[in-house]
Input
Amino acid sequence: MIRTCLIALLSHWRRNPVQLFAYLAGLAIATALWSGVQAINSEARASYDAAAATLGEGRFDRLIPKQGNAIAQDTYVTLRRAGWLVSPVLDVRLGDVRVIGVEPVTSPTGFAGLTFTEETPALMPGEPDLLFANAETAAALGDRARVSVNENVAPGVAVGDIGTVQRLSGRDDLSTLVLLPEQPIGRPDLETIAPGLRLQPSQQVADVAQLTDSFHLNLTAFGLLSFAVGLFIVHATIGLAFEQRRGMIRTIRALGVPLRTLVTLITVEMLALAAIGAALGIVMGYVIAALLLPDVAATLRGLYGAEVSGTLGFRAEWWLSGFLLALLGTAIALAGRIWQIARMPLLASARPRAWVMSGATRFGVQSVAALGLLSTAVLLVVLADGLIPVFALLGCLLIGGALALPVLASYALRLFEARASQPIWQWFWADTRQQLPGLSLALMALLLAVSANVGVSTMVSSFRLTFVGFLDQRLAPELFARVDNAEQSAQLEAYLIAQGIETLPLRSASAQIEGRPVQVFGVRVGPTYRNNWVFLAEESDAWDRVERGSAVIANEQLARRRSLWVGDSVQISPDLTLPIAAVVGDYGNPEGQIVVSEDVFTTLYPDSFAAQFGMRTGDATALRTQIVDQVGLPENTMINQEAIKAMSLEVFERTFTVTAALNVLTLGVAAFAILMSLLTLADLRVPQLAPVWAIGVTRATLGRLELFRALGLGLLVFAYAIPLGLALAWILLALVNVEAFGWQLPMFLFPLDYLQLGAYALVAVALAAAWPAWRLIRTPPAALLKVFAHER
Amino acid sequence: MNVRLFLLLCLLPLSALAQGFSGLGSEADAEFSSPSPNPAFAFPADHGPHPDYRIEWWYLTATLEAADGTAYGLQWTLFRSALAPGEDEGWASPQIWFAHAAVTTPNAHLASERFARGGIGQAGVQASPFRAWIDEWALEGPDFDSLSLSAHTPDFAYDMTLEAQGPLVFHGDAGFSVKSSEGQASYYYSQPFYDISGTLTLPEGQVTVSGQAWLDREWSSQPLSDTQSGWDWFSLSFDQGAKLMGFQLRQTDGSTFSSATWIEADGTTTAYADGAFTARLLETSNVADRDIPTRWQVALPDRHVDVTVSAMNPDAWMGLSIPYWEGPVGITGSHTGRGYLEMTGYE
Output
């Protein structure tokens, strides 16, 4: 009996393959993007954890140089001999790989958090040139060092004994000193033992996981959007399938199959199919994640300096959660239907059309919800403070906007209907409006995809324009050099002055202002600064006042975080408070910065020297060669302007590749939802089309009208998506950026881009509608005639 | 604790040493030097390190008393452990240094440790003027007879001065100390005649103390047999004037190998071979979740010594990367006095 029942139930899918496809594909889509995004997030999280373990960053206080980036090894020994329990770290680069030298005997994290097993050799001090890295990094290191593969090491990082790393990098000094949590009693002040160092409390090292939160939230939002659309497709399919199967269920029950058996069988059948769909989705998710991960990794590295492994692990935490979530979603959708079957009178008949139309009663509820969400959004614009409320605002705006769509569309269609004079058009508009409930979900998905596209592309393009302009003003010098010590600094400066080259020495120090880390820069005010820097806000004689030492320039991050602006004062050291003469935009850097004159800087930091130089020259390559020959600076300490610009833009381009890819995917999902809705509706619509056909409208005309209807609805959605997308862009630029990075970007409009996007969206809609229209054109007249004979 | 993990993997000789020497093979590594009989020590040079030997220590223990009569114990030990024989420049040095400092009061035992790599100046020993140091912990002075001692930790600290009141004494056969019937041995001499005084900084405040200190110098490459599971070492100073150093190495089969040195008040020594010195377990205490012997019946019949040695504070467990028991003891019976007891291999 069970077997026969099951065959009967499954025959429904054989007769409705499109519905089966919609069911499986809906689940696959729901699972795919969601689990793909989760896979990326979990890979990133694993990388952050590995990095935290490897580098111990954020867990221990550190001693760092007040100036430059090197600590003499003798300073380490002096500190230890004075009772300062510190452990040395050397942080260098070998090619593209960050190599960390640690001293395992004194390190508080042991050997950089590595666990050694019998298979992986342990570090032996004095073991020549052995580094530890994961397989990917080991390959990148090539034959530069002997590498033992250890997958516990953070991606992009190799660790080794400090002696080994010194030998490999040709250095004899250290980068930072990690301060052990427990210190002996009665040790002298740091200032007396090592006046060149300062203590950097652990909590001030920005936590990578925290910094990258907004990015991952972004990904999750896209994943959730797609999950929701997919599940709605599933929900709709289940609803329709159950309505259509009422007749069969009635028959099976009439034949004597107990209700309990039938319910169990249906549950098993639907959940088994759901499992297949979800499994397909996980495979797709893995592929999506694997394709996106290299760009995600590049983005995180470029934007936040966070290293993420470029290879994807198949971690249970994401695939299992995606799978279970999909099944749970399906089960919830199923539960209502099964409840109906359980309570269904034995002889009830199927009412699929009524099921579709029941959506109309939802309109009222939807309008109220939309109004509520949009009002909340307006409220949040005023009140939102912090990243989470801003994302909540985004959610309210998008969901509220989407829920309002059917109501607005219905209103628009009424207008068209009122203006149509020909009966065929009157019928067309009325029929379109009548189809809205069945299509609304797919249209909402399209709306979300298009507005997300408008919003994100506006943000990206605005950012690009601002960023390129910013690079031009900031990177005016044609050649940049970096020196390690005061002697080199003086030599280089003397040489450049002798050559009559306009030189921009840059002194920098990390300081704390009101308990937060700030970079202080000492600049030599000259024509380059005066001519190139563009301020967000300034007093008329800003540079003169900075040059006289009576004012400073603050970057936007600092100004916004502390609610300071031009005219306000900022305390730079315990003895020095100066007014802000100008606020300058500073993109691509999360830290606060203060620019003071060279003289003020030297007063603050008497032992400082200019570690960076900008040089104005007509021929950067020639000057570079001269400096190598005459001053003896190594070639790799200099970089010319074009190289920096290219590098910065490259980081930037990759930054938004991921979002663009996710946009395309959501647009695809929306198109798919439209296709599925149209296909599902197609069969149900035959009884409505048959009379129109019978009074003389050809099938070809009907088909064209179907296509036209889809395009018209697409256009309607697109027109509505533009303002919604621009609102989204404004929130991203003016609110999310400020919260996440500390800078605000001017918003530019790109009408041509939007038109292009509109064309894409219409093409997607046309493609989705083409098949159902074609099927309509090919419907045998007999099938249409049957409507009049068929007892429905 | 990662340091511990690291040590277990990398510093096998050390952990083997502390875990009753059981980890060592019966053959000394061919590369390391091995002690040989009839040593000819050269001082002050031999107060300095011997990097060709695998392990070496400068081991100071002291029994102290405050003005109010409260008894204290103090330990300061600098260990050298070589991953390979010899010395090298900078980080390439194969020498690892580590040190233990402890203070025992009647109701508390405080201990701390330090680690350092050789070759960079963070730790080391210099023979003359004598200086043994790791970080800011130091035992130093113009010569071996007149030293200052310091150790500072997060919980306690001490700053002491030491003055030798007698000569160096050599254990075993003129400083060649045999450790097993199979012939394992070390070079071993002591300065047991220090007067010590200074200040202990304890959680409850500073205490001025004075007393007697005993410094052991020992180095070897493979001191024990692999059938030995640990040792019980006694340094006893009798009120009657003489001193006794005695140890027994516990064999895995339950038997022991013992050795002792009788030290007259003028520094004259008599060495006793296996069997002359005996230590019989009287009582154990539960310390750090283990049963640790804290009362012994110690006898050296040839000198009419038959005494009960009791831990002043049974809780003198050194819960460090390498755990062992080390603390001051009181002596009653045929002789009276105070001393120090070290026991390894009970973890």
Remarks:
- The longest helix of chain B spans residues 2-10.
